[in-house]
Amino acid sequence: MPSRTLRTNARSALRADSLIRTALLAQLAAGGDEVWLVSAWISDVELVDNGDGSFDYLLGEDPPDRCRLSDLLLLLARAGTRVRVVTRPAAANEAFVQRLRSGKDATCDLRVVEDDAVHEKCLVGPGWIFQGSMNFTRNGLARNKEQITYAMDERGAAQALAEFQHEWEQA
């Protein structure tokens, strides 16, 4: 069960966005299964610079030069992955949530749940999980002093998925 804990801040070169990008792109290549993003605060952070076309094969017929978190989640949902996002109903999250909702079409299995009490920070998919203090925002990824653990953990990921389904799937 390999894992890595990052402690990030504005002065360090350590950032979680490259790990998150890799996990989401790998999930996009694999297709299917289920991904949950649970975070009190989420902004539409840029995760993929595709200016040189390196990710064209994954990003579709008309690949963007830049890909934000919402773009990747929508691509996952269109590729057959069940995508669930849980966040607070707050003005700071509104632009991100609206981009997801407006980008959703009949091919997407994507659902957004707003919960006033959510404080957990987690991104989980089949066999992998990110957990820690970091919200999925620009400040969380690049500025704040944060701790986030990434683990390849079948059991831990399955447990988180089951708990999230139980808590929010019927919401």
Quote the distance from N terminus to C terminus: 32 Å
Largest sheet composition: 7 strands, mixed
Give the structural class.
alpha+beta
- Tell me the strand percentage band: 25-35%
* Shape descriptor: globular
| Structural Rg | 15 Å
Oligomerization: single chain
Physical arrangement of strands within the biggest beta sheet:
1-9-8-7-2-5-6
How many distinct beta strands? 9
SSE succession:
EHEEHEHEHEEEHEH
- Can you give the mean pLDDT? 90
Low-confidence stretches: none
H/I helix tally: 6
The level of helicity is: 25-40%
Question: How would the blueprint of this fold be written?
Answer:
Elements: E1 3-8, H1 17-30, E2 34-38, E3 46-49, H2 56-59, E4 66-68, H3 69-78, E5 82-87, H4 91-103, E6 110-114, E7 122-125, E8 128-132, H5 138-142, E9 146-152, H6 154-168
Parallel strand pairs: 2-5, 5-6
Antiparallel strand pairs: 1-9, 2-7, 3-4, 7-8, 8-9
Helix pairs in contact: 1-3, 3-4
Main features:
two-stranded antiparallel ribbon; 171 residues; alpha+beta
Describe the structure.
With about 170 residues, the protein is an alpha+beta fold. The radius of gyration is 15 Å and the shape is globular. The protein is built from 6 helices and 9 strands, in the order E-H-E-E-H-E-H-E-H-E-E-E-H-E-H. The model has no long low-confidence stretch (mean pLDDT about 90).
